[in-house]
Design brief:
Elements: E1 2-7, E2 9-10, E3 16-17, E4 24-30, E5 38-41, E6 43-48, E7 52-60, E8 65-73, E9 76-77, E10 81-85, H1 111-114, H2 129-132, E11 139-144, H3 154-164, E12 172-177, E13 210-214, E14 220-225, H4 230-237
Parallel strand pairs: 11-12
Antiparallel strand pairs: 1-7, 2-3, 4-5, 4-8, 6-7, 8-9, 8-10, 11-13, 13-14
């Protein structure tokens, strides 16, 4: 199906490369079918505005298995990068019914226990997913853990969602923290404290952060893994 391909570039020292002014093309094909290659331009997307970002492109992946991305940056062809396309996505796919587990809210918990966001927006903790999904209103669901994120993208992604929310008063926004029991003395960001909603019984997320846009009937109409900028979310919400 159609998915985003994200490419991050770095130099020999590990420093990030890329900017809105620097051009990238991506040539992508199944590893054993170079004749089926498709070349697209990469679009720059900030992770942290003015500091670091990635290149993205929308592509159709018509078969599972190992694929190869050949990247050209500022006219220089870089080392090909293999990656795997799975037969079935782990997390809910486009068009599927979004899971609707009960998730904690301010009705029974404090912000300190609901989120590791240092600057939380209480509006994102009013509805449980079992109340929001399929209630006739479009819902944006954010799974992230700003203080404990392995990828360091959780905080910036959640900030982007919070910035977009005022533009869409007719949309429900829900943040689900990846971990539970944040304010408990024995808390640790480990499997024992993983929120049930992110596990295999519900969203089955292989990483964090994630954003899902769910229509009023409860169907997934957009999903973003890792990073997403404000314009991307604004566009899908209309």
């Amino acid at each position: 199906g159609r998915e985003r391909l994200l490419i991050g570039l770095g130099d020999a020292t590990g420093a990030r490369l890329g900017s809105p002014e620097q051009a990238v093309t991506m040539t992508v094909h199944p590893q054993d079918q170079p004749d089926a290659a498709v070349t697209v331009d990469g679009e720059w997307m900030w992770i942290v505005e003015g500091a670091t970002g990635l290149y993205r492109a929308e592509l159709d992946f018509d078969q599972p298995g190992v694929w190869v991305a050949e990247v050209t940056f500022e006219g220089e062809r870089l080392e090909p990068v293999p990656f795997e396309v799975q037969q079935d996505p782990m997390a809910p796919a486009l068009g599927e019914q979004a899971p609707a587990p009960p998730t904690p809210t301010l009705d029974g918990a404090t912000l300190e226990n609901l989120t590791s966001d240092p600057d939380p927006d209480p509006a994102l903790y009013q509805l449980s997913l079992d109340e929001a999904i399929g209630n006739g209103v479009t819902t944006v669901v954010v799974f992230s853990t700003p203080a404990f994120c392995v990828s360091a993208a959780c905080g910036p992604l959640l900030d982007n969602v919070k910035a977009v929310a005022p533009n869409h008063p007719d949309v429900q926004f829900v943040h689900v923290e990846v971990f539970t029991g944040l304010a408990e003395p024995d808390f640790a960001p480990d499997a024992a404290h993983l929120a049930p909603a992110v596990g295999p019984e519900w969203y089955n997320l292989p990483s964090e952060p994630w954003v899902f846009v769910v229509d009023g009937e409860g169907k997934v109409v957009a999903r973003y893994e890792g990073v997403m900028d404000q314009a991307e979310l604004d566009a899908v919400l209309g």
